[in-house]
Amino acid sequence: MINHFFRLNCQVHYERVSEIHVSGHAAQEELKVMHSLVKPRNFIPVHGEPRHLAHHAQLARDLGLDADRVFILENGDRVELSDGRLTRRGQVAAGQVLVDGKSVGEVGDSCCGNRKHLARTAWSSRWSGSTARAGTWSRDRT
């Protein structure tokens, strides 16, 4: 839900944003260092959820980039670089590609139905060393 609001360009106040983000995204100070080293004339944040992209775009503006040189894109958005400036140029068809193990792209309704059913009723099973004797086994439901 938070990401939906960021896509609508809302300012969202939620749990305290950590000073140290350790999920593969750089911390704010590291991003500042990269911006000072690279000195971009245009900027498109590309890694993270919409809220990460929004925060990174705001950081670029806070560091002096003009708002019309900072773009947050969705899959399929096109931009053109001409004379050192980026310009939005519409969209191309883009989306998710489903793979069912036999084919790519053209996945039938039965496969999607099976996936939805599995998502609603998913459980995992594993052998337990302490109970795997005489053909018995334990099943942990998650």
Attribute tags:
single chain; two-stranded antiparallel sheet; alpha+beta; 142 residues; 9% strand; 2 domains
What's the total number of strands? 2
When the domains are counted, the total is 2
> What class, by secondary structure content?
alpha+beta
The level of helicity is 25-40%
Shape estimate = extended
| Major sheet characteristics | 2 strands, antiparallel
> Radius of gyration, Cα only, in angstroms?
23 Å
Distance between the termini: 24 Å
Instruction: Assess the beta-strand content as a share of residues.
Output: 5-15%
Number of helices: 4
Determine the mean pLDDT: 77
Q: Overview of this structure, please?
A:
Residues 126-133 have low confidence and may be disordered. The protein starts with a helix and ends in a 21-residue tail after the last helix. It has a two-stranded antiparallel sheet with strand order 1-2. A hairpin with a 2-residue loop joins strand 1 and strand 2 (85-91). It contains 4 helices and 2 strands; from the N terminus they run αααββα. The relative contact order is 0.09. The radius of gyration is 23 Å and the shape is extended. Helix content is 30%, strand content 9%. The protein is an alpha+beta fold.
